[in-house]
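A quick word before the example. In earlier lectures we treated sequence and structure as two separate objects. From today on, think of them as two lines of the same record. Here is NADPH oxidase 5 isoform X1 written that way.
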Amino acid sequence: MSVPGDPAQPDSESCRGTTSSKEDAKWLQWVTHQFETIAGEDGEIDLQDFKKALNVKESFFAERFFTLFDSDGSGTITLQELREALTLLIHGNPMDKLKFLFQVYDVDGNGSIDPDELRTVLQSCLRESAISLPDEKLDQLTLALFESADKDCSGAITFEELREELQRFPGVMENLTISAAHWLTAPAARPRPRRPRPLTSAYWHNHRSQLLCLAAYVGLHVLLFALAANAHRALGASVMVAKGCGQCLNFDCSFIAVLMLRRCLTWLRATWLAQVLPLDQNIQFHQLMGYVVVGLSLVHTVAHVVNFALQAQSDTSPFQFWELLLTTRPGIGWVHGLASPTGVALLLLLLLMFACSSPCVRRSGYFEVFYWTHLSYLAMWLLLILHGPNFWKWLLVPGILFFLEKAFGLTVSRMAALSIVEVNLLPSKVTHLLIKRPPLFHYRPGDYLYLNIPTIARYEWHPFTISSAPEQKDTIWLHIRSQGQWTNRLYEFFKASDPANCGPKRLSRSLTMRRSQRMPQGLQPQPIQSGALAQGAMASHKDVTVELMSYLPKGTPRQGHQGLGCMGTEDRTQAQQEAAAKPRGLVSEMSSENHQFCNIKCYIDGPYGTSTRRIFASEHAVLIGAGIGITPFASILQSIMHRHQKRRHICPRCQHSWMDAVQDEDMKLHKVDFIWINRDQRSFEWFVSLLTNLEMEQAAETQEDRFLELHMYMTSALGKNDMKAIGLQMALDLLAKKEKKDSITGLQTRTQPGRPDWSKVFQKVAAEKKGRVQVFFCGSPALAKVLKGHCEQFSFRFFQENF
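And the structure line, produced from the sequence above:
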């Protein structure tokens, strides 16, 4: 069976299309091999062996398939029985496949499907898709599909009624014509993403700044090497190579620090140079220069070793080889003959730093090793000044900038300790921190900061994206997923903490905190009631809800605490009625077990800008977040909502609303497509309240004025190309149309099963013609490669934020 996977990987099924007869034959060969591996000497397999052979994890479907394949009812399946059944499915017509589907659903075999049988099937479908819904919601799904299919109200669904119902869903009927390789799928290696061709115009469109800078970098090295080698051509080839490499190292070892000047880079993002320089690739260029430094250093060392060996063999040289290489006696160098000893020390220190910077060290729980060895750059600079007579001239300007930035950052970050005032432990081991915002901390949506919590680790600083909007004046939000040693310690620390020990009089502190967190006049916060949670549609976890704020313009009448924003006319009335019918208080009530008010000291360094600062200057922005990669977009979407609200005015008498025609100077957005890909259902609960409020804001707009479109994908859910999910997806579609909200998230936007078909997604974006398209992604590198390839096909600009 299809095994749900990681959202970071491309969807092989969606890219596969109609399976060819050749693939069918390969698949039958795979089934035969699996059968022969499992079957005993009698050449038969029982139910348990059948599960192992076809990787079926849900017992219901395994039993139904087994029963249908066991044509003689012997309790075992022979290879002949299995091949006959599968051949029918592969080469049979759509009617044969539809009959097979009906037999799977007809559990008691009486020729019809009653509501209880359908409920059993849908319950198994939910388990296969890793979806958790309350029993009441499962009943609603069952009745929605049953009542739609039971045309004659006989209390049972016949084969003809099921066929008619399937014909109402063209996509389902289309999938029934696909070969059986989509019904029972062998585990296959994931396809490698197509690598972009570097000589195409689309590749140049997305990489021109990187390529130009790389060409300038290579050209500068060729020039420096040539000039230095030419100046020492009288001393022989080995000296020419050593001096050429040394001159290039003078530049690299000084400029490599400039690439990590985060404050300078953030300032450059606000200038026209951001359109010319590849500021988003500063870390990649830093790593590239690191490799170049190691390579040049080895060549430089080998060239000098060859030169020393030649000198030691000369009759005129009074020194032996080891004296030339390790001592100051030959007087090589401009400071007391220290060139050779410092060169050896530099090479050893460089190799140590290089080894400790490898991904296997940084990502294996040994970040401290990487961090402390990287601090040896100070010792390296000192040794380089003693080693080369001209290095101090190359280091002068970059060194001053570097130390000024470090001194400024250290002063600002340590000037006054901040406090973590609130903590929420969310699903998938995500820690939501609320930090008291410093008065002069100004940032833009999508920025990140460095966080230090002495209680967790005194000397460690880690970068995290700010998930709150700049318009939220009192606190800074961070959503931190536990993926490493430090983040796991953070989560476990708060999980083990007794809420009562986080501070005296917790409820009094809570009330004081909530009253102190007030927005400026005209931007009044209101808790957002999530319809999904109110109806109990999502998995029932009492500890995972997050309260987000809605920004209301002046003149907006308050409607209790329903989070309706500023609705207009009939839409406002309808939304108020819907919200009033829902239970209140479910979003703001959080378990004290996972929601704590505390006062823990911390320090922050930042903010620092990222590629997401370009979003507001885009015309059509496509925001793609995978898992916790939503955090920069959470800040951006909240800020977009705030700016949109600032443009709206409401007459206090007649409640008529209108929008200013003039937008912010730095906001050129005409359309925003937000795509969020999650592995499981619980992950959607991180920001469901924010998305609910965004949808409500959009509901007040006319169709032409709606600028935001949400697209939600759940990769663990089986799609309509899997027989086990056909009934479930039909039921979800019917209930979503009836209730005008999705049963999985509670949003109006329907959650799509599986992974996106990126070709179709980008084709739709291109067809809208809302302006120049720019794609912004935050997530895993594997998915980034896939998206970059598709963007180059459509000539979209692609920007990636690493996290």
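Notice the following. Residues 647 and 722 are 46 Å apart (CA to CA). We will return to this example when we discuss secondary structure assignment.
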